[in-house]
TrEMBL record:
Keywords: Signal
Family annotation (InterPro entries): DsbDN
Lineage start: Bacteria, Pseudomonadati, Pseudomonadota, Alphaproteobacteria, Hyphomicrobiales
Domain (Thiol:disulfide interchange protein DsbD N-terminal) ranges: 52-157
Species of the source: Rhizobium oryziradicis
Pfam family, one: DsbD_N
Signal peptide: 1-30
Full protein name: Thiol:disulfide interchange protein DsbD N-terminal domain-containing protein
Length: 289
């Protein structure tokens, strides 16, 4: 069975060579920044009160307008993966953004992986309490796409000097986003082995799917930066055990997988999704725990 092809091919021709800069005119409450808006939607920063260890759970909340979408972490040939950075000189450190399981988005001739409804990307802030006498400022950079793709950059600011209480709604937004993150491998859902073709034209993956997975799984395979692969054939189907051959129609010139780590996200039945790193050694491929 053939599934969706290598993505983002059609976005590049429509990409605008412009950059919309939006910023908050004043710090908002301790829980959220003001909304920054663009033609394709809006975004803001959510920061919860500190945990006992001083870290803060946070989230970048994005609301695309109707028929618009924003990207997953790997946009493929074209597009903008969401990014967030602290103000230069700030003592605050930001963890990497975490991404809920995305969907395939079809908008006209554009086929991509991302989100066409409100989404929150959770992350963790460290050393944020040192900013208590100054607004916490971060810069977010995303793409919002419809028939065209608009880069959208905004400075998001929150005043942490006020007394804080946890806003239930905002805490729920972050908890819901975390609940939709792909899980790590489990005893009933994991990659057992994989093998790269010598000519790098395909990757064979043996996977154990959870019970109740009646439909073919959805695959998102990321390897070299800027490359996303989703098209595969099922070469063996033995109950919960599947052997999949993922097509790699385009690879960087003179690319070697030796020592590289790729990642595979598999969405299966019962609304379960799992992501696993695939580590290529010089001689034997290893599935990291």
């Amino acid at each position: 069975m053939i599934h969706s092809s290598f993505l983002s091919q059609s976005v590049g021709t429509a990409f605008l060579a412009c950059l919309l800069i939006a910023g908050c005119t004043a710090p908002a409450s301790a829980a959220t920044s003001a909304w920054a808006t663009s033609d394709g939607g809006r975004m803001r920063l959510i920061v919860l009160p500190p945990a006992p260890d001083g870290t803060r759970q946070a989230g970048l909340q994005i609301e695309p307008k109707s028929e618009w979408f924003t990207y997953w972490r790997e946009p493929g040939d074209a597009g903008i993966p969401p990014q967030i950075t602290a103000e230069p000189g700030s003592s605050v450190t930001l963890s990497a953004l975490n991404f809920p399981v995305p969907k395939r988005v079809d908008l006209g001739k554009i086929r991509d992986i991302g989100y066409d409804s409100p989404v929150v990307f959770p992350f963790t802030l460290s050393n944020a309490n040192r900013e208590a006498h100054n607004p916490l400022k971060v810069t977010a950079f995303i793409g919002l796409c419809h028939n065209i793709c608009i880069p959208f950059q905004a400075e998001l600011s929150i005043d942490l000097s006020h007394e804080e209480t946890t806003n239930v709604t905002e805490a729920q937004l972050i908890d819901k986003a975390k609940a939709h993150l792909p899980a790590t491998p489990t005893d009933d859902f994991f990659v057992s082995s994989f093998h790269m073709a010598e000519d790098l034209s395909s990757l064979d993956v043996n996977v154990r799917l959870p019970e109740g997975s009646k439909d073919e799984p959805r695959i998102l395979l990321t390897g070299p930066e800027g490359y996303l692969f989703t098209e595969y054939q099922t070469i063996s189907n033995k109950g919960a055990h599947r052997s999949l051959r993922i097509a790699l129609p385009k690879m960087p010139r003179n690319y070697s997988v030796s020592g590289k780590t790729w990642h595979i996200l598999i969405a299966a039945g019962n609304k379960r999704a799992m992501e696993a790193p695939l580590a290529f050694a010089t001689s034997t491929s290893i599935v990291k725990p």
